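Researcher: Re-running this chain for the archive, since the previous output was lost when a drive failed. Same request as before.
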Amino acid sequence: MDWRNIKENYSNYLGPYKDLKQEFVWLDSEYNFDEADTDETWNNISSKEKQLQRLYRSKSSKKTEGFRLGLFNYEESILDLVEAINLVLRNLKKTKKTNIQITRLIAHLYLQKKYIDTFRNSRKIKNLLYDRIKYIIYDCLNGELEEYFVEKINILYYESKLEIAQMYYKSITNED
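Model: Regenerated structure tokens:
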């Protein structure tokens, strides 16, 4: 699914859910905002190749004293978060179900993945969309498809990886 399809699906719900118009405009402007890494090679490879490069760096970092001291916990949590995003998106892609929660979750996951893929150095990521996505997750779990999101989409696994990444994000950015 590409961003154009996501926007089209999202716009189908703007009539009945008028309060989503601001969210839709924000998502679209954030997704279309182009900030790029200074490394042109990084900018020109696919998301899958970026994840492979993160894995190679992770393997190398595991041989260092810094890894044993926990200095790479954030980078490891980003690896896990990307895998969780990919898992949820794959599961959502297989579904025949459609509703506003599914559409909002897909849009936010694509944006989060874009934020993560922007920089080679994951410490330059400016936002994991934690509060927004937690709200979307709660909306999914409090809706009519709660069991579906838990059992078929694996949203609790993703939520766990998001919480861990946010905890390490706060520790490297000194946010409280």
